[in-house]
Amino acid sequence: MLFNYERTILNKVVTNRGKESRILAMIMAGGKGERLYPLTCERTKPAVPFGGKYRIIDFVLSNFINSGIYSIYVLAQFKCQSLIQHLQDGWRFGGLLHDHFITPVPAQMRRGKEWYLGTADAIHQNINLVEKFDGEIIAVFGADHVYRMDIRQMADFHLRKKGHATVSVLSVPISEAKHFGVIAVDETMRIIGFEEKPKHPTPMPKNKDLALVSMGNYLFNKDFLIDILKHDAAHGHEGAHDFGKDILPRIHKQYPIYAYDFKKNRVPGVNKTEEVGYWRDVGTIGAYWEANMDLRNITPNFDLYNHLWPLKTSSYSYPPAKLGFDSSGRKGMAINSLVSDGSAILGGKVQDSIIGRNVLIKGDAAVINSIIMDNVVIGEGCKINMAIIDKGTVIPDGTIIGYDLSNDRKKYFVDEDSRIIVVS
Questions:
Q1: Cβ partners under 8 Å of residue 376, min gap 6
Q2: Does the pTM exceed 0.85?
Q3: Residue 274, exposed/middle/buried by CB under 10 A (0-12, 13-18, 19+)?
Q4: I need a surface site. Which of 183, 194, 367, 381 has the fewest CB within 10 A?
């Protein structure tokens, strides 16, 4: 397979941080998120609330903005109204610079009647946006993971290697790697193999106890990307138009494609107590709950309080959170928890939990090990444990959730793997 890209000269790519190469971000935000049901019943996965006041998509967008990359398209698809509204509320530039934008792009079915058939097909259906971009590198990143990353460091690696594409990877124990897409590399980090959930993952060259798994984030040289997309559209297999599962495994032997070790990425302001290379795929109810719980401790695995790498989101004019007494004199308190703007804990107790915005927790209520989203009301005397309460839900006085699973199954959704109750 001979691409036109092979006939081009690569010296137009700038290789020093003083003159940074221009990068266009294409954020994949169209996933159904079926394993996160019922949280994705009315919204796409990247729009699911997280950490009290954020959405999952805020992490990837903050990473790009903090990395000085301001040309961003967000490719939306299923149930995207909540996502688009969030982008309009919190992610708009002033419009003074034409290359500073965060623009949602709903699926327009330019190539036929089908929804996006994979990551490559999503980019191909919007190839006009890539072609008109006056820059060197196209970043194709997912929108459904929780992590911090200086994307410029990955771009520097990509340029130093002079590869055609770069895949971000995470080193994990061999015993865990079988659950992911594994990438085999040589000692220069050039990719020599792709393995989809292998029984016996290929270890890293210098550490037989670890394997590299794909994070689903890619950098491409622009001309190379355009060529492989057009070739895939013309010759790809039916239904298989995905970078990680189809295209890159098919062409990696012909073209230099490298793996970037995410654990070598260094973001300013990260505490020494935080987990090195923190990255979470919050694709299931259990994983989503655990990642939220990672935020609550005094020394968390992932600390939101990093002023040098801020996590941005939409802002609303809520008053400060309030902890106070109820009419009976009971004291409201929150222990080892995050409580967002506008929320009031009046005589109730919150422990080891995440509380969203404009939440009211009334007297003698107890919320433990739970995630409470925006605009929820927890009535007097309620006992909530190991639960996720979706936005706008009113929990009547005296309700007990999380102490009798057989009874909870009759009224609510119970995730059988994690035993987390979801009320929506």
A1: 356, 359, 360, 389, 390, 391, 392, 393, 394, 395
A2: yes
A3: middle
A4: 381
